[in-house]
Design a protein that fits this description.
This protein has helices spanning about 1-5, 25-30, 75-80, 135-155, and strands at about 20, 20-25, 40-45, 50-55, 60-70, 90, 100, 105-115, 115-125. A hairpin with a 3-residue loop joins strand 3 (about 40-45) and strand 4. It is an alpha+beta fold.
Length: about 160
């Protein structure tokens, strides 16, 4: 695979092109992860409508991706304002139906029809390790990753707009 040589080298591990059953651009994910030797991704279904994907480097969880196929209708900015310890410096994002990006987290609420039933697909991406002295860099990388992940996640969970 050509991607192995492009992403390998002194970094020790390669980010695969599919993580937790989702095709992703390794170039969008890699900036959110630290250096290390071993990359792992573990997908866990939680009930019928939620999945959690934990991405780890050298045994330490670095990124969490939660998807709710029918998470209910919530106002992303209001939720962020009510949870200031999780959402530091929240701002409205330009993608998704209702998306908030903060210094270490993205919350995106989007209309979803699943098996004929209308609801909302919620994407929650959190960086477990981030340097608060560089929030702008994290925000930009996190926003790029979440924007690319959103349509893939919706499709893979069976959500239709």
């Amino acid at each position: 695979m050509a991607s192995l040589s492009a992403c390998g080298g002194s970094e020790g591990y390669t980010v695969p092109q599919e993580v937790c059953g989702r095709k992703i651009d390794p170039g969008l994910l890699r900036p959110l992860l630290p250096e290390g030797e071993k990359f792992e991704a573990e997908m866990t279904p939680i009930g019928d409508d939620m999945t959690r994907c934990l991405l780890s480097v050298d045994g330490r969880t670095e990124l969490g991706i939660r998807e709710y196929r029918d998470g209910g209708e919530i106002d992303a900015m209001k939720f962020a304002a009510e949870n200031p310890s999780r959402f530091v410096n929240p701002k409205k994002a330009s993608f998704g139906a209702d998306t908030v990006v903060s210094d270490g987290m993205v919350l995106s609420v989007n209309p979803c029809t699943y098996q004929g039933k209308k609801g909302h697909y919620i994407l929650d991406v959190s960086v477990e390790r981030f340097d608060v002295s560089e929030p702008d860099g994290w925000r930009a990388e996190l926003e790029r990753f979440a924007e690319a992940y959103l349509p893939v996640g919706m499709e893979e969970t069976g959500c239709e707009k």
